[in-house]
Structure formats: C-alpha cells, structure tokens
Specification:
Mean pLDDT: 79
Low-confidence stretches: none
Number of strands: 0
Helix content: 55-70%
Order of helices and strands: HHHHHHHHH
Largest sheet: none
CATH superfamily of the largest domain: RNA polymerase sigma factor, region 2, helix turn helix motif
Length: 177
C-alpha cells in the first residue's frame, strides 16, 4: 500500500480516477479540516452545520471527478471556488436560513426562570427594545440610531453591547454546550 503523504493533488487525483480507494480516503482526510472551517464560516451555531459539512464532502467528490490538469489552476483553488459558490447558493435555500430575531422570539425562547429574572427588566425598557428592533433587526448602525433619536452615542453603544450579551446568553445557550 502506498503512503500518499508525499504526493501532490494531481497525483492523488490520478490514483483516485484509476480506482485507488486509499488515495480517495487520504484526499478526504486531507481536505476535511478545510471543509469544516468553511462550513463554520457560513453556519456557526446550528444543527444544520453537519448537513453543510456533508454537502462539502459531496462538492469535494464532484471536484475530484471533474478536475483535470488543463484547467489552468490548482485543485485547491478549484475546490475552494466550487465549495464557496455552492455554500453561497445554499444560503439562499430556506432550509439553511437563520430565523430573523425579534424581541418576541427571544422572549418566547426564554425559560420561565429567565422570563421572571430578565423579562421584567430587559424587555420592559423601551429604549432597549427600540435599539434591538432598529440596530439588530433593522440593521441600522448604532451611530446613525444615536443621531436620529438624539441619544448620546456612548449610552446607545453601551445598551447595544448589553443587548448582544443578553442575546448570547439567552438564544445560543443550547448551541454552546
């Protein structure tokens, strides 16, 4: 059995197309960290991340099948462009879209203890709700928000950071375990 550590991608693809399964296993193991890294850059906290990793393996197999040395680029470059293009395309699919957060969604996802502790203070403050709806959901910059609503920038920024901290603790708590 061959040791494929000293082979480049061109040679590995030649062996794979010739039917060598050990070369295919080596190629998959070689590109696995890259697939996981790219997947994480598209979907960080989701149960759909594993599905996207599987899509990455499928793209790797398609790239191995379609690649030839006359393409005027390395296999690595060809694979990177292919997988990113495929992932960008998948992000428009309803299955992979992240839900748009609103104060109601966050409040409803809280446990009863969190609602009694945080709900009284956090979601009763009109300024916090306004900053949440405009800056996080509406994607308005905090600088623009502070100018439009005549609120000191540092105060608005402080409230926004507090909201982000609360969101991390509430919404993503299950995904970080």
């Amino acid at each position: 059995m061959l040791d494929f550590k000293n082979y480049n991608d061109y040679e590995l693809i030649y062996y794979i197309k010739d039917g060598n399964e050990a070369a295919l296993d080596f190629m998959i193991k070689k590109y696995e960290p890259l697939i996981k890294k790219l997947t994480t850059s598209f979907i960080r906290f989701s149960d759909k991340r594993d599905d996207l990793i599987q899509e990455g393996y499928l793209i790797l197999m398609k790239c191995i099948d379609k690649y030839n040395s006359n393409m005027n680029c390395t296999f690595y470059s060809y694979f990177i462009v292919s997988i990113r293009h495929h992932f960008y395309h998948l992000m428009n699919d309803e299955y992979y879209k992240m839900p748009i957060l609103s104060s109601d969604v966050i409040y409803n996802s809280m446990t009863p203890i969190e609602k009694s502790f945080k709900g009284k203070d956090f979601f009763k403050d009109e300024l916090k709700i306004s900053i949440f709806d405009n800056c996080i959901v509406g994607n308005i910059s905090i600088y623009k928000y502070s100018k439009e609503y005549n609120i000191p920038y540092k105060k608005a920024l402080s409230i926004l950071e507090e909201i982000k901290f609360e969101l991390r603790n509430i919404y993503f708590k299950d995904n970080l375990k």
